[in-house]
Amino acid sequence: MLFKRCPTTDQLSDFAAGGGAAWIAKHILTCQPCRDQIAAFQRDEALVGQLKLLFASGPDEADSRARARLLRRCAEIAGEAGLADAGPPPAPPQSC
């Protein structure tokens, strides 16, 4: 199962704070531990490959329906993994 915290950044997913599926999609492309967790959880390496192609192609070249479908799938993965219930990231500490 996916961690509610990113093991690399030790931060809660900002999925619930408005980052949504786009944040999840972009984050798993840059964070190997989270990508490994998703692959292990879903056994779906194809999703990671599709996301790489999607974001590499740029917004003008990507098919908007395919983008929407992949982002919905990311939202489903986040929900299944408990990331949707992780809550907003903690407030940064205030300095004196």
> Sheet bearing the most strands, described?
none
What is the overall silhouette? globular
Count of domains:
1
Measured between the Cα atoms of the first and last residue, the distance is 39 Å
Fraction of helical residues: 55-70%
What is the succession of H and E elements?
Answer: HHHH
**Rg, Å, rounded:** 14 Å
- The tally of strands reads 0
Structural class: mainly alpha
Strand content: under 5%
SS element count, helices: 4
Low-confidence stretches: 12-17
Mean pLDDT: 61
Tell me about this structure:
This protein has 96 residues and is mainly alpha-helical. The protein has one domain (15-85). The protein is 59% helix and 0% strand. The protein contains four helices and no strands.
